[in-house]
Amino acid sequence: RRIACLSGPLEFVVSRARVAGWRTALEKAGIAIADDWLLEGDFSAPVGHKLARRLLTSTDGITAIFASNDLLAIGALRAAAEPTSCL
Predict the structure, then answer these.
(1) 62 to each of 36, 54, 69, 79, how far by Cα in Å?
(2) Which residues have a Cβ under 8 Å from the Cβ of 14 and sit 6 or more positions away?
(3) Looking at the DSSP assignment, which residues form a beta bridge with residue 40?
(4) Res 86 pLDDT > 90
(5) Which residues, in sequence order, are bridge partners of residue 4?
(6) Read out DSSP for 40-78?
(7) pLDDT in tens, 13-22
(8) 48-75, pLDDT tens digit by residue?
(9) Are 2 and 65 in contact (CB under 8 A)?
(10) Contact at 8 Å (CB) between 47 and 75?
(11) To 10 degrees, the CA torsion angle through 47, 57, 86, 81?
């Protein structure tokens, strides 16, 4: 129920469209979106890793991450697989 979004650059139409889809899905599910659940970067695995680490070490209790592309998702998966002592 606390689903964050890793987005590509918001100046790209495709990034804005994917963020809009994430927002719409959460709103339809009755989930209020916190401002800090949306993190913007580029479409790369290292950035996905960095942003996911930020989410996973926050006190927000994020339960899921929507990644805007495969490379961001790969980076997020790498961060999630790390031992908690590395986070």
Answers:
(1) 10, 11, 19, 14
(2) 8
(3) 7
(4) no
(5) 65
(6) E--SSHHHHHHHHHHHHHSSS---EEEESSHHHHHHHHH
(7) 999 999 999 9
(8) 999 999 999 886 788 999 999 999 999 9
(9) no
(10) yes
(11) -70
